[in-house]
Amino acid sequence: MSTKNQDMNRRRFLKNMAYSSIAIGGLPHIVKARTLGRQGAVSPSNKINMSCIGIGGMGTINMKAFLDKDDVQMVAVCDLDKVHARRAQSTVNYRYKNKDCAVYFDFRELLQRNDLDAVMIAVPDHWHALIAVAAARAGLDIYGEKPLAYNIPEGRALCDAVQEHGVVWQTGSWQRSERHFRFACELVRNGRIGEVHTVYVGLPEGHAFEEKQKRTSGPVPEELDYDMWVGPAAWTPYHEECCHFNFRWNTNFAAGAISDWGAHHLDIANWGMGTEYSSPLDVTGSAIYPDGDDGLYDNPLQYKFECTYAEGFKMIGANAGQVPKGMGAHFIGTEGWVHVNRGGVAAEPASLLNSVIGPGEINLYESNDHYANFLECVRSRKLTITPAEVAHHAILPGYLGNIAMQLGRKLRWDGKKEQFIDDDTANRMLTRPLRSPWRF
Amino acid sequence: MKMFMKSFVCSLVAAVFLFAASPAASAQVTPEQVEKIKQALPDKPVKKPKKDRKLLIFTLSKTYKHDSIPFASTAFTLMSEKTGAFTVELSNDMAAFEKANLARFDAILLNNTTSLTFDNPKYRENLLEFVKNGKGLMGIHAASDNFYTWPEAAELIGGYFDGHPWVGNGTWQVKVDEPGHVCNKGFSSASFRLSDEIYRIKQFNLRKNSRVIVSLDPVASVNMKAEGVRSTDKDLPISWLRDYGKGRVFYCSFGHNPAIYWNKEILAHYLAGLQFAFGDLEAETTPVPFKIGSALDFDEFDKNLASLADYKYGQSLADHKDIREFVTFASQDKKVMDAVEAKLISFLQSDASVDGKQLICHLLASFGSKKSVNTLSKMLYDSSTVEMARFALEGIQDASAGNALREAALKLHGDAQVGVINALGNRKDEKAVSELSKLMNSENIAVADAAITALGKIANDQAIAELKNARQKSAADRRPALTFSLLNAADQLLAQKKITEAHAIYKQLFAKQEAHPIRYAALRGIVQCNVDDTGALLIEVLRNDTPALRQGVAMIVHDLPADQDIRGIVAALPSLSAADQARLLGVMSARKDAELLKMALQLSKSDDAAVREAAFELIGKIGDENTVSYLAEVAANNKDDATAARKALVALSGDQVDSKIASLLPEAQKETRLQLINSLRMRRAFDKDGKIAEMLLQSAMDEDASIRLASLRALQNIADARQVETLTGLLLKTSDEKERSTLETTIVAAVQKNGITEEKNQSATKIVMNAYTQTKDSETRQSCMMVLAKIGHDSSLPVLTKAMSESDAALKTAAIRALSEWPNDKPVQALEGIIRDSDNVLDRSLAMRGYVRMLGASSERPEEQTAGLFEEALKLARNDSEKKMVLSGLSNQTSYQAFVLAKTQLAVPALRDEAEIAVVQIAESTLGAHPEEVKAVLQQILAESENATLKEDAQRYINRIEKFEGFITLWQLSGPYTHSTADIFHYEFPPEKADGNAEWTNMTEISDKTTPWLVNMTNIYGGSFCAGYMRVYVWSEKEREAQLELGSNDGIRAWLNDKLIHSNDASRGVTPADDVVNINLNKGWNTLMLKINQTGGSWGACARIRSLEGSEIKDLKYQLEMK
Question: Which CATH number is A176-210+255-365+388-430's, of 3.30.360.10, 2.40.10.270, 3.40.980.10, 1.10.150.120?
Fold first, then answer.
């Protein structure tokens, strides 16, 4: 594509954006060549051209980590909060001692570039899948934040797009790249605690609105494109307490502690059980929700959901107070238990901790740097340590639990169709309509 | 058994006696209370008993013991006396469930029993049979807190405890479901308030088996507002009754508070229930399903809806929460839901607020039916409600919703139109194809794109024809949308197994002029259709297509079903580029295919190192026993690939691999043999029939010493108790010292393989003892002693102890050496004897080493006592070297007594080094309890020791003691600063600028009460993506070098006297002294300024200045303003 064409496209694109209030409906149809490939065989000196979409808290941490990698060239950053975007641009330029990093406020414009190889996406949950699908359609390899998507059908769309266009996907479930999590899962996988019948997954409690928190339903900050921020979610007016980091406590944007932390510890539970591509057969649950007086936070406070797997065990996810060993993944077998959390591994018998995983045993995928693992796979085209499908099945029991908790009945799940069996209401609750003009 | 029965009878008699003698005098029931109970009890039975009835009151609580148990026992005993309807006996002994005993009773009352498990299967059967054969079971309150691991009994009684949000000191609204029921005659009102603890029951088919006659009222707000109530708490039975076989069950969850037992109405309820259980009172037991409507308060719902009519975003969502729960619950019953939906529809028709209507529409997206469609469709034509109405319609499956959306698709404009078109696509509305085909040509590009996408989702023949047609004649800017839409359509065709149609589209999209993501998807689709020679196609791509697509082939191959034939690709590998070869080999590991393995073997000889590495890795994953010898050859003889081949040899899987490796041993050349032997060691080969060990034992007798040694080492991982005898035989034969010591380890490992057992230890000890007595060779005997000691079986202890008095000095020494290795402290006295009596320096030293180790090993002796024994040992020690050993043992102690003992040795110049080590090591465990004393000694070490590592540790422990000491708590603050475009960490805000125009405020109080040393910026400023500055003036008595210890969340920069001295753009929590900076303080006043930046979450910092050694600098002073 010549420079001239590119400019024309860009002008047309911007014209379209002006044409309707939010620009072209749905996702941009951007198609371009992969640059790594275009330049011929990948050589070690060939840098990976990266960009970032969403550079708030986690996005900034991810961006800095990629900036520290010698084989990355960060060429562009994008955030619909102009302050976030410009600050990130400045950080990149400072690091490279130049002024080359481009800045965007609309991800669709960023994806128009034809010099990108990869993108880091760290946006609120309700935007995850739409942006990821657009990036996959643009042929970009993606480092995307957890949870995989806002709900199960959107996660499915993301997985399909990633596979359809052959892009490498890494989920930000970085616990997999910590030695002790891998070791704990290897103990379980290799039968050190016998047959596992129960896995507890302890997560934080949900978040109630704190009374001392100020309510500022004031005007939308000038730098924030709030209409775009709401994006595909149902429209609600701006409240600082539901925006940026705090989006997660409102059901319109995320599933609270369940999606925030469940994406980590449910993932480890699946890793240990070898059920990374399996779905539960059924789910029950109960929860206590905030009283609603604050008008903003409505994700569950205390919750517990129980899933039965065909592999013959139960997975019980709950806020930490309702599981025996609190936060983390706790595997209980016929001959002992293993509990792993960010602080470390505990086991009964304790001697398991000195156990050696032999070469003939199940040795799990080894990554000791989550970001480097992504970059390696960008070159080798192999699966990362947390591919999209694995992340999809990690958060799936949490989302099933969420619906079971609301309906208060046992729900049976068809993992192949990704539909509940004989429960129309539950199936309607699986998905959400998207605000116009957004669509997959 | 007889004895047991007897004792049971005794205890029963005793219980009855105690009770009968003086029920009123029961420990917790006062005479006044007994009187109240008597007054409240019914005068006569509800129904005259058919015959004499006897009740067993069972009171065993295995976990929580309810205070109300004696009240219940008293009440039922008095009830029996006052009404004459039955007699009672009490028991809290599981033996009460002996068949013969149960036969004496007509019913059992579980009086607040908890956690009964009925582990004895006979008792389980007896209880179930008791009821089944016609008798009764009654439970009060905690009777449902029992059968968590016995589902049959949980179902018998109805379920089990699942929490009690309705606690005993609250007052709850009770609903008598059936006021006319014979067991409810005693209730004067159908609804009453009561103070008691009510259980939430996890039901076990309760509603299918039992008739619920009293419930907690799910409509009463007092019940629903209790702490811990779940949104699903609606069906809350309190009392129920059922038939079970020929028998009957009555349960009532009242009975936690003692006052229940002088509540007249409840006592009447109990009596009726009990008489039902006896079979004296006929009662209706037909189960009635839970009525959804009965749990719903329509008045409250109306109120909530009325209140929602004024709702504006940001206001309380409490009404909406109630409405949502109400609707969710109502939706379980179609009739109820019809009524509810009607109310929701009138809400939408009313002049309620738009925000309120939006919430209702979102509910209808999940719960609405065709009844709502009419109203919703009208809302499509109002710009303020179109989006919410479309949300609701999108979720309603009825065809009428589709009709409404189709109609709107042609009438609406702009975003509203796009939304409706999107909905038609999501609904895969085949009837919409004609409309959508027209809309594809809309001048509004957004509308046209939406229509194109929707057609691709619908993907029937007509939709696809329209898309194909449009794509042929469309302008370039419509092509991408059409292309993606067709791709989507092809994917759906493929999923429906319409292979030919899907394949045709993929073929079309694979054209060279298409962009890479499309071509990749098309190629993948073609391959999945699997109608062409896909192998040939992929090879063609690999040979001639773009590098990006060539890379992509690896992913496509990886995703292929395992049964799809890829022989073509495998065969073509040699003709591909090295990069493609390596990449493809890397993704084929899931296929155990003979051709592939052959190719991997061939490519493992490639000229390209990356290809060879990938080939060996693949061989390791898919290879079998037939690749063993090749891999071993390469590992032995090919320097470049040795590592890769070795890894592959270790990674090979399959039952036959280990035995194959072993079988190759005799014939292989020396280097290859070594590789094979080592691979067995690394593989920790599983040696089911002992044949592998057999082969290794043979090579352990090889004439080549390195083969012998490698074999013995491999046996350490493989041999088990079966080989102990042969290994011991080898020990008798060998004359090589290294082999002998390796054999010692191997024999012990063989004994301990698969866990240490008394039996194995005993038999191995016997074998080695035999060898020991057989041989005359002194060195062999010494080895035997060592093996015996490491096994540590009691039977060899006398032999080794006796050997300590051997005349042969070498043997004697060996015995002492061996005993000092004993795994427990049994030889401790024997060793002490040597230390007391022997004059032999070596013997004493060996004994001393073992002795101090054993002193330290015992965990049963109190620590102070152990310290005393160490003191004793120091006295027994005759020279410095022995004393040093004592100190080294002492250093593993953790008591303060040990610390003091070590400290006293610091004064002995010859022991100084060891004493220092001991002191510092023990300091770690004692600094918490004795900070001052420990710190003083550690400072002495810092000042005087020459051991640098030790000083580091000492400093660390001093730091720990001083952890919160010396942090600067006096600060001036400036901030928070933020900047919309700059990198905040590096941006120069006013405090960094020379003009000094920044505003500073004094920090007036500690910002974090729990951690006073922390300047908690979250508490001071809150916010995110900003920076704050902290400044303080520091007075130093003299010019000096010092250390600035900093901790920060997140990044930190520091200036001393306006010079930047530190910068760390970190993301972390605050940990004191994460960063330590060497600084030069001027004599007099110095200015210290810190900048903290914040990227998200909490933020803050801490800082202090220490001497270069990390200690406090006494003369430093801090102040806020320069005087």
Answer: 3.30.360.10
What's the CA gap between A269 and A313, in Å, rounded? Answer: 11
* Fold adopted by A17-175: Rossmann fold (3.40.50)
- Taking a C-beta distance cutoff of 8 angstroms, is the pair B127, B245 a contact? no
| Residue B673 token pair | 């043999």
With bands split at pLDDT 50, 70 and 90, how would you rate the model's confidence at B592?
Answer: confident
3 state SS of B1095? coil
| B1065 interaction partners in chain A (CB closer than 8 Å) | 64
CB-CB under 8 Å, B548 with A38: yes
At residue A392, the pLDDT reads 98
Beta-carbon contacts below 8 Å between A and B: 269
Look at A295 and B984 and tell me if their CB atoms are within 8 Å: no
- Provide the 8-state DSSP code for B982: S
Residue with tokens 């010859």: B910
> What local confidence, expressed as pLDDT, does residue A22 receive?
30
pLDDT digits (tens, 9 = 90+) for B171-216: 999 999 999 999 999 999 999 999 999 999 999 999 999 999 999 9
Are residues B745 and B716 in contact, defined by beta-carbon separation less than 8 angstroms? yes
Rounded distance, CA B934 to CA B738, Å?
Answer: 46
Q: Rounded distance, CA A288 to CA A174, Å?
A: 30
Q: Please state the domain extents for chain A.
A: 17-175, 176-210+255-365+388-430
Residues 235-294 of A with CB under 8 A from B: 235-237, 239, 244-245, 286-289, 291-294
Question: Residue B652 pLDDT more than 60?
Answer: yes
Q: Residues B1068, B1048: contact at Cβ < 8 Å?
A: yes
A20/B1067 Cβ within 8 A: no
Q: Which of B362, B366, B579 is closest, CB to CB, to A425?
A: B366
Q: Sorting pLDDT into bands at 50, 70 and 90, what band is B12?
A: very low
Q: How far off is chain A from B427, nearest CA to CA, in Å?
A: 11
If one compares B580 and B9, the residue with the highest pLDDT of the two is B580
Contact at 8 Å (CB) between B505 and B490?
yes
Write out pLDDT tens, residues B481-505: 999 999 999 999 999 999 999 999 9
Mean pLDDT of B32-51: 95
Which residue out of A34, A167, A416, A418 would a mutagenesis test of the B interface target, given it has the greatest number of B Cβ atoms within 10 Å? A34
How high is the pLDDT of residue B963? 63
Q: Please name each of the domains of chain B with its CATH number.
A: 2-290 (3.40.50.880), 967-1119 (2.60.120.380)
Q: Which of B228, B426, B555 sits opposite A288 (nearest CB)?
A: B228
Tell me whether residues A295 and B446 touch, CB distance under 8 A.
Answer: no
Answer yes or no: is pLDDT of A17 > 50.
no
In the numeric block, the tokens 């024999």 are attached to B747
Task: Band the pLDDT of B477: cuts 50, 70, 90.
Answer: confident
8 Å CB contact between B844 and B834: yes
pLDDT digits (tens, 9 = 90+) for B740-769: 999 999 999 999 988 888 999 999 999 999
Separation CA B282–CA A147 (nearest Å):
59
| Contacting residues of B for A161, CB less than 8 Å apart | none
Instruction: Say what the pLDDT of residue B822 is.
Output: 92
B327 → chain A, closest CA residue: A407
Say if residue B561's pLDDT is above 90: no
Chain A partners of B201 at a C-beta cutoff of 8 Å? none
Interchain contact, B515 vs A223, CB within 8 Å: no
Residues in chain A with CB shorter than 8 Å from the CB of B362 are 234
pLDDT of residue A214: 56
On whether the CB atoms of residues A203 and A374 are closer than 8 A, the answer is no
Cβ contact, residue pair B365, A432, below 8 Å? yes
CA closest to A213 among chain B residues:
B1022
